[in-house]
């Protein structure tokens, strides 16, 4: 990418991601497309152990003010290792200082995102949804919903959702079945304690299953649901490319969606061309969604 380096923003939040060496270029697309519409004061990367010195040099070249941290800075005996738990543990510490937005590398922002700017300015949480109706629910309702789809061999997320009402959490606790790939956490002095308490309780209930991939997302959903003023982002304005419309502003190419067709490549190329042509490229980015 020959696009200009990112300048430090003035919006009062931190943009945080955990990045693997295979996703460095994708992360730069995600970051640079996002900061066109919401540029953070701070950009932080939790570096997967695969990140090389060359990767670090590339990241610093494109984001001179970037803060790079080793993943092993963010471990605790009461949470699993791996499965991007380091990312969530990092967030739980940084929210003591500032609002934190968690941004996955497999995302692309193509139009203005006023809901995000509003969340930062109002210190309210947000979470990415994958359905038009993704409500915050009390835990008994979460269990009821999970039991309706629980089957042998179920995903750990569904199993966790069916059991969290039984682990002694606060009676007024909430949960949202969102996506941890794009989440906004307001400042909090208690998030880390809440995270560790939740993980301890779920470990006691589920044992070794709590180490399975997906439990970090369950925990993220629980924490953001109980943050100040949290709401699910409107879908499909924020969503996956298979559901995109002309109004879609933020695309999450989750899982294999980057690779099953040419949509991710085409959208990324549109973004790169627009960045090279900045500042008058907003229309180019917006037009790219209509082809998805």
From TrEMBL:
It comes from the Bacteria. InterPro entries: Nucleotide-diphossugar_trans. SUPFAM superfamilies: Nucleotide-diphospho-sugar transferases. Gene3D superfamilies: Spore Coat Polysaccharide Biosynthesis Protein SpsA, Chain A. This is Glycosyltransferase 2-like domain-containing protein.
């Amino acid at each position: 990418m020959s696009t200009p380096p990112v300048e430090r923003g003035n919006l009062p939040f931190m943009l945080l991601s955990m990045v693997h060496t295979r996703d460095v270029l994708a992360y730069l697309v995600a970051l640079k497309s996002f900061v066109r519409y919401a540029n953070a004061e701070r950009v932080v990367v939790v570096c997967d152990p695969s990140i090389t010195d060359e990767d670090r040099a590339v990241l610093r070249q494109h984001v001179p003010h970037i803060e790079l941290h080793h993943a092993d800075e963010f471990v605790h005996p009461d949470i699993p290792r791996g499965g991007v738990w380091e990312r969530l543990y990092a967030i739980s510490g940084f929210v003591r200082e500032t609002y934190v937005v968690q941004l996955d590398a497999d995302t692309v922002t193509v139009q203005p995102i006023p809901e995000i700017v509003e969340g930062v300015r109002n210190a309210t949480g947000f979470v990415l949804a994958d359905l038009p109706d993704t409500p915050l629910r009390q835990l008994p309702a979460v269990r009821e919903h999970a039991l309706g789809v629980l089957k042998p061999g179920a995903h750990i997320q569904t199993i966790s959702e069916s059991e969290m009402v039984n682990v002694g959490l606060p009676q007024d606790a909430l949960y949202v079945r969102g996506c941890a790939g794009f989440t906004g956490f307001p400042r909090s002095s208690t998030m880390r304690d809440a995270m560790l308490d939740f993980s301890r309780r779920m470990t006691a209930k589920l044992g070794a299953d709590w180490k399975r991939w997906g439990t970090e997302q369950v925990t993220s959903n629980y924490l953001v649901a109980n943050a100040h003023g949290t709401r699910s982002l409107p879908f499909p304005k924020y969503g996956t490319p298979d559901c995109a419309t002309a109004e879609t502003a933020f695309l999450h190419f989750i899982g294999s969606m980057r690779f099953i067709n040419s949509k991710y490549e085409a959208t990324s190329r549109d973004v790169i061309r627009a960045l090279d042509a900045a500042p008058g490229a907003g229309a180019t980015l917006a037009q790219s969604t209509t082809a998805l």
